Structure prediction request, 681 residues.
Amino acid sequence: MRFWNGDNEQMDRADLEQLQLERLQSTLNRAYKNVPFYREQFDSLGLHPSVIASVEDIARLPFTTRVDLGDNYPYGLFAVPLRDIVRISSSAGTTVKPVVVGYTKSDLKARYTLTARFLTAGGVVDTDVVQICLNPGLSNWGRALKEGAENIGASVMPMSHMSTWKQLMAMQDYRTSVLLTTPSYAMHILEAMKSMDMESHSLALKAILVVGEVLTEDSRRVLESAFHIDVTAGYGPSDVMGPGIAFECQEKKGLHVSEDHFVVEIVRPENGEPLPPGEIGEVVLTTLTARAFPLIRFRTGDLACAMEESCPCGRSLARMSQITGRTGEVLTIRGVKVHPVQIERILKGAREDTSPRFLLHLYKENYLDMVEIWLQMEDNIFSDEVKVVENTLRGLRQRIFQTLGLDVTIKLMEASTLDQYAVPTGGVIDDR
Amino acid sequence: MLKIKNLHAYYGRIKALDNVSLHVRAGEIVCLIGANGAGKTTILNTISGLIPRAQGDIFLKEININGLPPEKVVAAGISQVPEGRQIFGPLTVLENLELGAYLRFKKKEKEPIKKDLEWVFELFPRLQERMKQIAGTLSGGEQQMLAIGRALMARPKLLLLDEPSMGLAPLVVKDIMNTVSALRDSGVTILMVEQNARASLKISDRGYVLETGRIVLQGNSEDLLNDNDVKRAYLGKDYKTFWEGRDLA
Prediction:
């Protein structure tokens, strides 16, 4: 099966544009009517949803940022009464407050349709055994992918906190045919197999579908030739939306955007001006079908470019490139969006108001993103008793894991050592 | 078949339609639902050319028909069955039907008209039985069938139905809805306005929900039937606005 929603994925462009316009107008009408934040945003610019006469007119509307999501914690951006919400999913967000996203029944239905499209495009069929390996920070996605795969009718092993060795054992013994994971974890698995002298033909894998991070062409080549399989990628911002907003087909030339559910714009990060195809800019997303949590011109912080040519796969859905980087300070670590300020806040909590000085050191170990926090040694954290220091650090590590879903190591450093890096506190040394 | 983009219409200085876009594909039944005064009938009247100076585009196939006078709209292939039937009471059933083909009489399409009359009688055997009867003496349901039959005599590509169930007993409503369904099966495309949201969603393919002249929701009829907003507002289910949590922050 090549398409999950053949009708919509191959829709005539003129029909698709009409559909987008209708859905955009009704989304704006609902958001304006039901969400005070959007109404104030529009009113302050003297705008009304009725000025939108084409999808391109969306450029007249204000942006929504992650800061707005934090400011409207928890339910401020919901466009339906809470009684219509059937799932509340929360992610750490990138400000003080977590990001809370609600789903109605129809939102969930739309979401598993989207993930099913992504999985179908990657070759998943009802006879597959699908194994999901994602870290806890991406558990919302783990659920979305599980539902999508179940929707297709595949046999799904949901994500669990097993060691790599156990995951591999399951993959071998359960005859897993499709692995859903991040690119770095796929590479990590490959390394682990080498160290265990495990041959790739002892597995029944036929495809790996990756989300959360950028799939480089190098990693794709390595994985495809090592396993003799296809590797395709899906895209979505992990904190607010599902993993199937855009997805690769077997052509592997860019990500098809599910344009019947989202409008994608590429804008210049500095001033928000629209950019033509081929030029790299920030991905801006507007939901067209979301009932509970409509987002209007949401700035994802991801960088990519729009692509113009049509795709030989037969989908009429427009394409964008893989994500080529991030704007600003928000980091993507193992697929999880992290702002250094979030880590600062936790470190601060342990040390009574004094702002700790620290750097984030990011590097790869066995293809996995690793985070080292280099914390400046100070009297109030230092104790003659090693045990006390160790306890403090363990507590910090735990709080970071609980808040962000990330495993980190913390190293205490002399101030002079940190001085060697000409980076202000909270800065990032990215060796990935 | 029909594609409407950014339609704005006014009654005097009052805005009746505010940026309405919708489409109907060939072979579909699409329904417009919403409260009284939401603008449902205005949409049909604007399409039919009954409301002057509406802004926006109304494409029938590829031709923009906005601004055409009503008779040209009929000639282009759109017939409207008005709210409250508005049949010609003193005339017979047959005369009413023949009037529906008025534009075609002028073009001397005698044979095809005769064929269409047979088709309408096939759809509504009751009308054939009462061919000679004065239309004003028919029952409500029969009058509605006559109104639909009369519109069909213009051989429309698209039929606009305004409140076909209005004032009819529940059993008759069921009859009329079955007829609308059968019409679609015989190849007529239908855009329908209904107060009876449940009945129209049950037989239609897709629906649009209107509020104060704006479209606030659209989707497959089945999804709309199960939608909480639609249930509360139009299907008479437990209407209460709950905004728990809104002020918690």
Q: What stands out?
A: The first strand of chain B starts at residue 2 and ends at 11. Chain B touches chain A through 29 residues (CB under 8 Å).
